[in-house]
Amino acid sequence: MKQRTPGAYHLILRVHRRVALRVGRLGAVSFPAGWYVYTGSAMGGVEARVARHRRRQKPLHWHIDYLLGAAELVDVVVVPARRRLECERNRIVLSLPGARVGAPRFGSGDCRCPSHLAYFGLTRPQIPAP
After folding, report:
1. Buried-state track 104-116, b at ≥16 Cβ within 10 A, e below 16
2. Model confidence pLDDT, tens digit, residues 28-56
3. Where are the domains of the chain?
4. Signed CA dihedral, 52, 120, 84, 21: sign only
């Protein structure tokens, strides 16, 4: 039986050189080189969602799908939870030293967060444990 841990997750990404992408309805977005953290949730199972994010060939559905085609997925932090913690965990990430919004409204079309993508420049972020 496949494991299905509900919860939130953080994808720690590195963009090696500036890239401009068309990101769904957001349109053209420029991503400077550096470190990013994307915060998402998967109440049906983080394992399957992260496995999808790791695949190179997939339909482009979420904003993060577009960026993953140009970024290196370096690490994943899983936050098991029985309730949606995505926005709460995103606020924690955006409050870390050096963090700023990576792209306005990225991954946050269904909430009031400014973005679910944080940019850290050339410093690798340290995500606090759940």
Report:
1. ebbbbeeeebbbb
2. 999 999 999 999 999 999 999 999 999 98
3. 7-119
4. negative
